[in-house]
Amino acid sequence: QKQTVDKNTQSDMKILVAYFSCTGTTEKVADAIAKAIGGKLYQITPATAYTSADLDWNDKASRSSVEMATENSRPELGGETIDIKDYDVIFLGYPIWWDLCPRPVNTFLEKYDFSGKTIIPFATSGGSSITNSVKQFKKLYPNLTWKEGKLFNSGAEKAVEWSKQIIEEQ
Ligand SMILES: Cc1cc2nc3c(=O)[nH]c(=O)nc-3n(C[C@H](O)[C@H](O)[C@H](O)COP(=O)(O)O)c2cc1C
Q: What's the gap in Å between 97 CA and the centre of ligand 1?
């Protein structure tokens, strides 16, 4: 008699590690996660890169300040497009900006069809938690499947352990 194949074994699961990062902190964590669990690393790239002046949160008129003050701001993306249908699980990494995700992450979530996928947020920050950004995801995209997110300000090692554990649980 033929044995049934467990569809949820690690080898069968297609994992995408999509991240947005302007100064490399989230990128390091994303890279470590992708390597640890055999995921495809994908950078969410804005059509126009953010300059350091754009990232000045002390300047109310800076690009990031204006975008974050504008709820429906959806900066255009550049870079390669990606076939989300090829993946089952999406790790989604970003820096916390004004207690939320940067708006290009919203552009990404609205550009592709994530229905039927499991999305697992992770973030880095200067101290703020990930809680409010995940709350906003659930509010804006209630039909998507969100896993509890996690903040990694203490480096990539913890993220590696965490991601491996998540994959085992899937
Ligand atoms: C525009 C802007 C807003 C930010 N807002 C917050 C914030 O609300 N809370 C916080 O703890 N850190 C905040 N930060 C700090 C970043 O979350 C932190 O430096 C992050 O690790 C940067 O990630 P990256 O190097 O991947 O871009 C902000 C940074 C920028 C540029």
A: 5
